[in-house]
Amino acid sequence: FFLLLGRTAAFRTAFFCGFVAWKMPKTHVFSVEYAKSSMATCRVCMAKIVKDSLRVGHCQEIAENDLTLKENDMDTRSMIAAGAVRWHHFECFPRMKGAKWMTANLPESPAQLEGFNGLKKGDQKKMLDLWKALKGSASDKKRKAEDSTGQAKASKASKATVGAKLSKLTAVRGVLSAAQFKKVSDFERSLSSHSSCSSLLAELKKNDQPRTGKKEELVSRVAEGRVLGGLPSCPKCHNGQIHWSRLGGWFSCPGYFDKEMRTQKRCSFRSKELKRKAWKK
Fold first, then answer.
1. Residue 250 Cα distances to 89, 90, 180, 240, angstroms
2. Which of 6, 123, 187, 205 is geometrically suited to a Cys-Cys bond with 119, CB 3.0 to 4.6 A?
3. How would you class 77 by CB atoms within 10 Å of its CB: exposed for 0-12, middle for 13-18, buried for 19 or more?
4. 235-249, pLDDT tens digit by residue?
């Protein structure tokens, strides 16, 4: 605290405003629309969202709190509360957060989302099916807790059914050929059932691939690597790890963390042509 006394007034103001914003209750707001351009980046796969494709947005709005903010703080409060929308491919949205978080924060129906009424009927149905699948896991857990007869097998089968529906709904062929898509899908099913996270991480480490994310992300990364080959380091900055999206076939680099400078370095590399590395099992 005493370190703040030697700082400028602007720094102290920014610090305390940020602290107030952190302490204030936040409301999760979701929206859906067709991408207006190809500029936005999906916050899950880090690939560009192609114009006119279906995307789902999320942002946090800070609630008003008269006990902490005065009238003359309105401009500061407005700046703090203006949370930018983080966009996701429709297919990537289920991986934005875990099932528990989704259950706690998603609205009851996608019809409550801003932009829902502007979607085509087919895409409205896709959103309804997605919500049913995302909410289904929560319903299964609730039924299991209330079930006094101990029918665990039925609950497990129901959970597997929900998972299969969600996987089918968000499966992306994108730029893959039919043969490639089948091979990747077969590997994903096999790895999900028979591989542990530790074995997946070991295979990714052997191939110098990113090792962050949930199990389904690790599974997808390994399956794609076995079929298509490994992703190289960035040819432009030489330090960043390349991301690839099936949806548009783009290779891109988000940059890297410079340990010496202790700062994030951005990179603008983006291309559809990049040679992959041979995959080691």
1. 14, 17, 17, 15
2. 123
3. buried
4. 999 999 998 888 778
